[in-house]
């Protein structure tokens, strides 16, 4: 479990590829101070397991599904990546619940400056749109952000100078792809409702008419 508050920008030192599988080595002196084998680290929003480490870098395995389904397929040696350790139980919770399980890849449609903010509009797969709401939470490359605009197939976020400097989002331009994780609470609510109203024991299914009839 993560919060979406990026702790460090790491640098990809090496990528050892075998077919679609990759062993990734990432330089990250700050977050390695208390690392252990098997720890979870979010790399651009993807939860990965530490398989080895030194005082300067750690390695993780990317399985084919991760390579195919996330923006990590586009990183190269020398690329910077967002890093966050798993959430500590006794720490401050400054972002939102982030699992590190990417829901899909978004494409930056536009990047526009407005005084001290930069607005990114990101196109997303249609099946993810239902999990978004104005002023709701979203994780973009592992960074906890707030939704400021919505269309049928995109959302807009506003980035302050600190976030632009401390995360890799500031390096992104129109046409680049990013990892998107929707608000996990919305996904759980949907699944619970679907299981309840579409079970074999329920004569009714969840629909717009059903919700209206029950006061929604």
Automatic annotation (TrEMBL):
Enumerate the InterPro entries for this protein.
ATP_synth_asu-like_sf, Lumazine-bd, Lumazine-bd_dom, Riboflavin_synthase-like_b-brl
UniProt keyword Hydrolase present: no
Ranges for domain Lumazine-binding come to 1-96, 97-193
Give the Lumazine-binding repeat ranges: 1-96, 97-193
Q: Which domain of life is it from?
A: Bacteria
**What Gene3D superfamilies has UniProt attached to this entry?**
2.40.30.20
GO BP annotations of the record are: riboflavin biosynthetic process
Q: What class of enzyme is it?
A: transferase
Pathway where this protein functions: Cofactor biosynthesis; riboflavin biosynthesis; riboflavin from 2-hydroxy-3-oxobutyl phosphate and 5-amino-6-(D-ribitylamino)uracil: step 2/2
What does this protein do, in the record's words? Catalyzes the dismutation of two molecules of 6,7-dimethyl-8-ribityllumazine, resulting in the formation of riboflavin and 5-amino-6-(D-ribitylamino)uracil.
Q: How does it assemble?
A: Homotrimer.
Q: What is this protein called?
A: Riboflavin synthase
